[in-house]
Design goal:
Layout lengths: L1 H22 L53 E2 L16 E5 L6 H8 L7 E2 L17 E5 L28 H8 L2 H4 L1 E4 L3 E4 H12 L3 H12 L9 H5 L12 H21 L4 E3 L5 E3 L6 H11 L4 H7 L8 H9 L2 H8 L22 E9 L7 E7 L14 E3 L4 E7 L1 E6 L10 E8 L11 E2 L4 E4 L12 E7 L2 E2 L9 E2 L2 E5 L6 E5 L2 E4 L9 E2 L7
Antiparallel strand pairs: 1-2, 2-4, 3-4, 5-6, 7-8, 9-10, 9-23, 10-17, 11-16, 12-13, 12-15, 13-14, 14-17, 17-18, 19-20, 20-21, 21-22
Helix pairs in contact: 3-5, 5-8, 6-11, 8-9
Length: 537
């Protein structure tokens, strides 16, 4: 027992030293008084968080039953005239007849199909385009046929099965893993925050923070390494259970975090219009079929990071009894049945509730980062960073300035460095509007889980707690029905009339209110300063 504790304390000490080394890396940004700006890099997947798992007695793998493949869902792409039966991508002449999907926007469709926005036209001439807003689902439109996809067009997984959507409300990943009885159920790890976790708790932890559906993480873990129902299929897969052999990301927690980020890149890159092809390790590049849904692209993108093109095709072929879609249905039933009541994830007329800047009046803060990753360096560009006034000295000291509730709501979750405010009042992150506050200090935290707050109530103080950061700041991100909402997208972040706009790259960008512009600056340049005035909401 003493030896185990000593080993654990030694490991924790090494982790702290490694974290300090990461913080004071060449990427450390200078601090300029009186304000500082620090683009937070929340990179839990790049921190070696786990110690060696407890030694376990090997068990024989449990064979999984063979499931009958379900028919694949093909996109609604039709020809204005009759087409041969079985054609996956029918078209007439140089046009696709495409039926919009929930979450589609004209700019994203133009990017996927490789056409100018103005060349897309509705089948019904009187249709009014909500540029750049969300298009209503099932709207028939005509798109010039200028490109063909290299990937299959079959939709393999609904969007609601990728993110922590309402379909995950009744699912307990810990109970499922315990009942499955595999290696995962007996695995124990240690993270600096929150401490010791079982394998199933680790899956739930990563799913909750990245807002990824825990069913999908469990299925990928089982497909890649056999951890859920049986034992790791090799010593390598015991160390790298998601199949990503990277010495910087060994063991369960970093592997799960890496997988969650790859899924996010595929999902939100497709949704937001900045991904349209896959690149494999051997350099092969495939154009994604432009009619796919975001959930399918997330799955395709993940497997492109760990498989060769031939293995990728086999893994995603629903006709292959050893494929991932077959395993997924065998583990969790038909995902498309759940999607019938869980989708669409958001309606085309969705709008953000009124929100205010998250700080008190007449206190100058700085917009330190424009739209960037909600949780992790990549993925949904849903977050904004604000740094408080800061005197010379320790860059990560807890700020004295207060962080406020941007809207009325219920505190859905409080963890070290994190707070989630649920705006629809049910206390669940999988439904309705939620706002993540990252790097909020536990010092003088004013609320607990379950508390109801009013817009403008004090919550806490900015700090470096809750992830990797070079200086005290607050990281804000929104999600709706479990999906991170792009800060500069069709439903832009609106804080008291200040509207977020994307920059050329993540972390760049601005807030605009009428003729006023605040540019994001990692060194708190004067043009990044912003404050709530007496006349502001």
């Amino acid at each position: 027992m003493i030896a185990q504790r000593a080993h654990r304390w030694l490991g924790a000490t090494l982790l702290i030293l490694m974290s300090l080394a990461l913080i004071f890396s060449p990427h450390l940004q200078r601090l300029l008084p009186p304000l500082t700006a620090h683009a937070a890099l929340v990179e839990r997947e790049e921190l070696t968080l786990t110690l060696a798992p407890t030694t376990l007695t090997p068990r024989a793998p449990r064979p999984s039953p063979t499931a009958t493949p379900r028919p694949t869902v093909t996109p609604r792409v039709e020809s204005p005239t009759a087409t041969p039966e079985g054609t996956t991508q029918p078209h007439t002449g140089d046009w696709y007849r495409y039926f919009t999907q929930a979450g589609d926007t004209l700019p994203a469709l133009a990017y996927r199909f490789g056409v100018p926005v103005e060349s897309i036209r509705p089948v019904t001439p009187e249709t009014v385009w909500p540029l750049p807003g969300l298009l209503p689902p099932d709207l028939p439109i005509l798109i010039p046929r200028l490109v063909r996809g290299d990937t299959p067009a079959d939709q393999l997984l609904p969007d609601s099965e990728v993110i922590a959507s309402p379909s995950s409300l009744d699912f307990d990943p810990e109970a499922y893993a315990r009942e499955a009885g595999g290696y995962l159920a007996r695995y124990v790890t240690f993270l600096p925050t929150p401490g010791e976790l079982t394998g199933p708790q680790t899956v739930a932890f990563i799913a909750r923070h990245y807002s990824i559906n825990p069913r999908l993480l469990l299925a990928l873990l089982e497909y890649q390494s056999g951890w859920v129902r049986g034992e790791p299929r090799s010593a390598t897969l015991a160390e790298y259970p998601m199949g990503r052999v990277d010495p910087r990301r060994p063991r369960l927690a970093p592997q799960l975090a890496w997988a969650a980020e790859q899924l996010s890149v595929g999902y939100y890159g497709w949704r937001e219009g900045w991904i349209r092809e896959l690149t494999f390790a051997d350099g092969t590049r495939w154009r994604l079929d432009p009619t796919l849904n975001a959930g399918t692209v997330a799955l395709m993108y993940f497997f492109a990071q760990v498989l060769s093109p031939d293995a990728w095709r086999a893994a995603l072929d629903p006709a292959n009894p050893a494929s991932f879609p077959v395993l997924y249905q065998d583990m969790f039933g038909d995902p498309w049945l759940r999607a019938r009541w869980a989708e669409p994830l958001y309606p085309p007329d969705l709008s953000q509730p009124p929100m205010i800047l998250p700080f008190e009046r007449n206190v100058p803060w700085a917009l330190t980062s424009g739209p960037h990753g909600a949780y992790g360096r990549e993925g949904a560009r849903a977050a904004l960073d604000f740094a408080p006034p800061h005197k010379r000295g320790e860059p990560c000291q807890v700020s004295r300035e207060w962080i406020l509730a941007v809207a009325d709501g219920v505190v859905a979750r409080v963890e070290p460095g994190e707070l989630v405010l649920d705006l629809d009042g049910d206390g669940r992150e999988q439904t309705g509007w939620n706002v993540l506050y990252l790097h909020i200090s536990q010092h003088e935290l004013q609320v607990r889980e379950g508390d109801r707050v009013r817009q403008g109530d004090r919550l806490g103080h900015a700090s470096c707690e809750g992830g990797r950061a070079t200086g005290s700041h607050i990281h804000l991100a929104r999600k709706y029905n479990g999906e991170w909402i792009a800060a500069g997208g069709p439903i832009p972040f609106n804080l008291g009339g200040w509207i977020a706009e994307n920059g050329p790259e993540p972390y760049q960008g601005r807030l605009v209110r009428g003729d006023e512009v605040v540019e994001a600056s990692p060194i708190a340049a004067p043009g990044s300063h912003i404050q709530r005035g007496d006349d502001d909401p």
